[in-house]
Amino acid sequence: MVQKSNIYILMLIVMVLGLIGFIYTQLMNEIPRPPEYKPTEPNQTTPKEPETTKAKLEPTKKTSALDREDNEQKNTDPTKPAEIIKGIKERPSAVLEKDEYYLTEYRVQKPANRVDPIKLTPASTEIAWAYQFDGSVSGVPAIKNDVIYFGCYDFQAFAIDLNTGEIVQKQKLFSQPIGSTEIYKDTYIVPQRNGTIQCFDMRNGNNVWNHRSAVHIKPGTIDVSVAGIKVHNDDIWISKHWGNLYIINANTGVMQADPGVTYESRINTLAVPFQKSLIYPNVAGELICYDITGTKQQWIHTIDSGYMLSLHSDNKSLYFNTTEKECISFNPNNQKVNWKTKIEGFGYNSIIEKDGVLYLAAKDIYALNKDTGEQLWVYKADSKNGFNRPMQVTDNLLYATTEEGQLVQLNRKVGTLVKSFNLNEPIKNGLLAHKGRVYVSTTNKKLYAVQVGE
């Protein structure tokens, strides 16, 4: 009985204490609180760091190599090695990118309708025929079996029978073409700015294959991805805009190799074969040499100043002209300069060779002994920009155009004028001579077949 009474007493005490606690809580809730009072809560966040401290601790955000602004400080001395700034490596130059690529008009979007060209009535007996296109011809056309092949900036490619002057093929392109059309066996190949390469059959017009490589887009400027292509044996060497030289199979368009550098340095002119190697230049003033398969880099050489605007190989030496108005002969085997000579201006892919003589258009036209650099003759331009585009030589003649629209036919051995024609339209491309005619395009979006004789 005693034990049970003790239990009851304990239970009663617990109940009394609980009642007292309840009454106390109620009384406290009814007491008014100061307006500024707030219940204290656990702090769930860490104190905010000062912006200066935060900036020091966080790594700098990496941006695209294409994000560099024009006002960013960079090297202005073309004799110093190019710096890598935000992934881009280049030397300063007075040469404009649009001039190097011959671009005269630019469309971001595809045309709503791909317009048919208009065959013009020749205004002169010297013109065999002429066409007006909706976009300028890109680069230098190609000829096979008396048919001329080329791409236009209106997203189209054409084939014209040279005997009749009639269009025999018209092709749709994915993008605006860039550089010159190339021929491989019975196909013609059109490189395009957005990274596409299209191959068409000459015989039936079929699209044999398409190749598309990665692209970079540089807002507000010329978004060139491909600088041009060169067919070598069964391969196609694609000069890319950010430092790579893609090699694809000419029969299938399938990638074979991807030689290149880890930084972006625009390849502004085509690669050339040299013995068992391939060599390509960039705007950092570098010559980059790989084995002919493009799988093993052999060496990189930086020239003394500027960068190359043309590159020619005879398998004994390389020849190039530069943004610093020099023409140079270079020995790749020992990476030494054979000779160099000063010239008057710029020339874009404008070196050609015949019978041991090097011909260069760089404002004036130069004939140089390729072994010594001696000037054999110089034909002076009488216009501001003069001769600066690809030329063509035959057994006895040389053909060249000025940027201002003059077409000249010279005796290539002595440099004297044979004939001159003035188209009175700006010319930004090279020309093509074939069977007594010269085929030349203008920035007025025209293609002319000019009678010159043989």
Q: What topology does this entry show?
A:
Blueprint: H1 2-29, H2 51-57, E1 84-85, E2 88-89, H3 97-100, E3 118-120, E4 127-132, E5 142-144, E6 147-152, E7 156-161, E8 167-172, E9 182-184, E10 187-191, E11 196-201, E12 207-212, E13 226-232, E14 235-240, E15 245-249, E16 255-257, E17 272-274, E18 277-281, E19 286-291, E20 297-302, E21 312-313, E22 318-321, E23 326-331, E24 336-342, E25 351-354, E26 357-362, E27 364-369, E28 375-379, E29 392-393, E30 397-401, E31 406-411, E32 417-422, E33 431-434, E34 437-442, E35 446-451
Antiparallel strand pairs: 1-2, 3-4, 4-35, 5-6, 6-7, 7-8, 9-10, 10-11, 11-12, 13-14, 14-15, 15-16, 17-18, 18-19, 19-20, 21-22, 22-23, 23-24, 25-26, 26-27, 27-28, 29-30, 30-31, 31-32, 33-34, 34-35
Number of helices: 3
Could you name the CATH topology of the domain at 350-454? Lipocalin
Strand fraction band?
35-45%
- What is the radius of gyration? 35 Å
Pick out the low-confidence regions: 27-70
* Annotated CATH architecture of the domain at 350-454: Beta Barrel
What is the share of helical residues? under 10%
What profile does the largest beta sheet have?
A: 5 strands, antiparallel
Shape: elongated
- Strands side by side in the biggest sheet: 3-4-35-34-33
Q: Write down the oligomeric state.
A: single chain
What is the CA–CA distance across the termini? 141 Å
Structural class: mainly beta
